Amino acid sequence: MMKALFMILLLLTSFRFSALAQWTERQSFNTVKEVHNFGAKKLCVCNYCAFIIDEDSEIQYLNKTSGLSSANISASCADEDGKYFAIAYKNGSLDICSNGKLFTIQDITFGSNLNNRNIHHLTCSGDFIVASLEMGVSLIDVKKQEVSAVCFFGETIKKSTIYQNKIFSQTSHHIYSVNINDVNIQDPERWKISDDFSWVFPSDIPVDGYNNLVNNQLKSDSIYHIAQSDGKIALSSEYFSEVSGSTIINIINSDNQNFTCAFYNPYNSNHIFLGSENGMLYEYLNHQLKSQYANSYYLTDKILDMNCTPEGDLFILMNGQVSVFDHNGNWHVATSFEPLKYLSVNKILKVSDYVFWISAGAAGIFAVDLNSTPTDFSDDKTVLFYPKNSGGERIGNKVTALSLDNNGRVWIGTNKGVATISNPESVFTDNYFFVKPIITETSEHDGDYSQYLLSSKYITAIECDSKQRKWISTLNSGVFVVNESGSEEEFHFNESNSGLPGDSVFMMKYIPKTGEVYIKTNCGLASYLTDTQETQENLSSVKVFPNPVRPDFDGEICISGLEENCDIRITDIAGNLVYKTVSEGGKIFWDGTNQNGHRCSTGVYLIFISSLNTKNTTVKKLLMVK
Questions:
Q1: Are residues 177 and 237 in the same domain?
Q2: SS3 string of 142-181?
Q3: Residue 144, phi-psi category: left (phi > 0), alpha (psi -120 to 50), beta (remainder)
Q4: 341 in a domain, yes or no?
Q5: Rounded to whole angstroms, how far apart are CA atoms 474 and 394?
Q6: Residue 134 in domain
Q7: Are residues 94 and 152 in the same domain?
Q8: Contacts of 521 (CB under 8 A, 6+ apart)
């Protein structure tokens, strides 16, 4: 039954997200908060995902991109006979997988006007689930796939249980009970303060034995910083986690301190510096600790971000200060950064080899020109300024993000939209102003209209991909993707229309070599595979995924490892052309349909790839099962 159950999960997922193949959720399966008996198996529930483990330690994963409707898990339960399990979310929705079918109840608070729809606890018995809510309980009939009753007490229900056809619900002051078959269960008057103590709330299964069972996965969801180099991703948390292809390596800090940021040597991606919350700097080579360095000037300051000069002098941003760890292993106090004292800072952006910008919140931006002398601060040029438009008006009132695109233009995120400057060196001469990009939208009723790009949004990060598109994340509205100038919106990803696990996004990082964008949300980490992989010098690394394409797959087929400007033709085994295109970058996506728009029939298909620039050629085979 379980094999059928998970096949249906996959089918439902394909129905929910048309481009699911491009999303990968990367939450931690290693911090379990609830465990339930589920027949001979165990349902293990984490913060944003879950898994089922059987007697042979085989694991089946559950998250949003494998079928669940949401990610911010608040409660769960499972039928001990293995008939169904349920997972609840802080938005009030509930997923139930029963008899090989997954169904979702969008709001088990039954249309109440409560601001807090959090589900605190689930319990089940027979065909019924009881959900403990902020101000009452909901009774769910699993067979009927519906909420059969909701009762509001005006008190937070901490947990409930079902015992001998009675529901017992605990608040801070009382335990209430009612007969589960009472036709007026929604009436608070039918619930009595319980004086029957022959029952007990069932004991929770200890979770310790189910933590850290999942190999090759992230160890933590608490990510403070993301760095990248040569297709590798460094995630800083209580662990240093490096993602490279399908491999994940987790290294814990031997000093029991959190890693707060990471910086790859630009010339050697196997060489990385990690900063900690107490100011220690750790140097790793090939995942082995090489050295650790104590900053004698600011030993207890959290390291927030790092960047370097061409010589390898490491500029280290801390709270209100910058230190320099030079390429000879010496520490320096960067005295020219003194204006940062007492300011709220979070990112150091290298605008050119010896020019750095630092975001400083309400104070704006601090810029420094090192004058090609990284450790001599006496000749530095510095300026602290706030982005203003040509009319002298401030753009927002807090700088929240900085990014440099491939044309040398700096993009600035604020708490009220986006600004750009095409000549960042002009900030040292007072002859500058910032531009707010204008985006044009089309309304069916009002015609075309224009407005400033995301002017009402709190911007948290901006990344530029290899097609010059700008990925702009927001505090509570997901991620927007706009064209090179910011005049057109190409995508808007949010929790309801994509594999993005949450709408509150805190940081992003674009990976040129793989074309992925890593996105940290309030419900864990996810990555999106764009069509902008770096182009290859030959066609030896061309891959087709998925292959074979199975009947339950409803996403797009990815052909990666391409050179720029490749002619791609896909034919059936008889040589009939079904699709053709020319690549703009390192990968293309194909929806599996022929030139008439119909899904291709079962069979083997040939993919002929020919570079129009280098004349390199290759042929790949693809099996499709309709």
A1: no
A2: CCCCEEEEEEECCCCCCEEEEECCEEEEECCCCEEEEECC
A3: alpha
A4: no
A5: 20
A6: yes
A7: yes
A8: 500, 501, 502, 503, 504, 505, 506
**Co-location of 115 and 235 in the same domain:** no
> 336, 387 in Cβ contact below 8 A?
no
Q: Which domain holds residue 191?
A: 2-209
Q: What does the pLDDT read at residue 550?
A: 85
Tens-digit pLDDT profile for residues 322-348: 999 999 999 998 999 999 988 999 999
| Cβ atoms of residues 216 and 248 within 8 Å | yes
Residue ranges of the chain with per-residue pLDDT less than 70: 1-21, 110-115, 298-300, 441-449, 535-536
Facing residues of 358 across strands?
Answer: 348, 366
Tokens read off for 121 = 């606890």
Closest CA to 165 of 132, 202, 197, 128: 128
Q: 183 and 256: one domain?
A: no
Q: State the burial class of residue 101 (Cβ atoms within 10 Å of its Cβ: 0-12, 13-18, 19+).
A: middle
Identify the three-state secondary structure at position 190: helix
* Domain end point (choices 253, 274, 293): 293
Does some domain include residue 312? Answer: no
CA distances 193 to 135, 136, 189, 371, Å, are 16, 14, 10, 76
CA distance 219 to 513: 25
SS3 27: coil
